[in-house]
Amino acid sequence: MSTEPAYDQQLVSVIVPVCDRFDDLDRLLAGYLRALDASSITFEMIVVLDGSQAAQLDEVRSVAARDPRISVVALARRFGEAVATTVAYQNANGARILTLPAYHQVDDAAPALLLAALDHYDLAVARREPRAGGRLEALRRSVFHRALGALTKSNFRDLGCGARAMRRSVLDEIHLSGEQQRFLPVLADSRGFRVAEIAVGQSPLDRFKGVYTPHDYGRAGLDLLTMLFLVRFARKPLRLFGLIGTVTAAVGVFVLAWMTVERFLFKVAMADRPLLLLATLLVVLGVHLLALGLLGELIIYTNARQTRDYRVDRVVELRGRSPAAQNPEGQYSADQNSASEQPVRRTAAAPEA
Questions:
Q1: Nearest to 162 by CA among 349, 319, 23, 280
Q2: What is the widest separation between alpha-carbon atoms in the chain?
Q3: For residue range 310-351, what is the model confidence (pLDDT) as tens digits?
Q4: For the chain, domain boundaries
Q5: Angle at Cα 72 formed by Cα 49 and Cα 124, nearest 5°?
Q6: Which pTM value belongs to this model?
Q7: CA nearest 154: which of 232, 206, 47, 37?
Q8: CATH architecture of 8-233
Q9: Alpha-carbon span 62 to 56, nearest angstrom
Q10: CA distance 192 to 121
Q11: Looking at the predicted structure, is the pLDDT value of residue 306 above 70?
């Protein structure tokens, strides 16, 4: 018998993580409540304060006192938006999740558009159109998303928008850590969920007045490398480290071979040449990278039975299987033998709202 809790299929759990950046929460939450009420949506709202923000806590408490649908969670210290979102999700009761940013990004019609998209998709991501901002900001966004698309084979254009609607199964299967909440659509896409960007209006109050520092750009570059590894090489690290290690070692071996030819045929000394040290280091580095890839493959192989990076959309027909052929969670469900075929879930192209 399943011990999983039953979630309200009609209830939408709205998550608002309050982290480093936030606007006037009283005004912001009041706007969200008006938009959700106008859409005739049955919802609960969970506001998570990331860290000890006494002023914001009092502000949110005053809003929650006027509306019993609002719950407030305050974390002991700052853990990041991914942790705040996870904490709210673990305390949510709805089968559908709607995340909204703690600052103005989208107009009042966006929540209803995103939730309506869940009739066809597992995850709906807001894309603000038309987008305000200068040419430099547009160029920065374009470079970031194009680089991400080249590395992960994804096609998203506004991952900076925090307004997203999803089925609960998305967060059930994808563990968020660090700053990965920004890349949730990319991770869900690689997992086999149906993901789409939905064009929504941008809030007239959506204005970022800060300045991006070299540290911010450095973190963005590291985030891109993280996504490259998680999406394309998490289950096959030897392909990444093996390729780099092979090329590195091959260059070192070629240089050593050429220096050996020079030594014996042209009587060129080797001992006093820095190139000899460089070539040796390249060979050693290449071997180490190959060993690192092999070690990663060994770790994945020994833990493959406990982890999976795929999802089954629907069992079309599976009759007469043995009791040992259970699903990855070890539970057997009789309705999985259903012969009602459904379309295979694929990542959808970004539709227009």
A1: 23
A2: 89
A3: 777 777 777 765 544 445 444 434 343 333 444 444 444 444
A4: 8-233, 237-303
A5: 75
A6: 0.78
A7: 232
A8: Alpha-Beta Complex (3.90)
A9: 10
A10: 11
A11: no
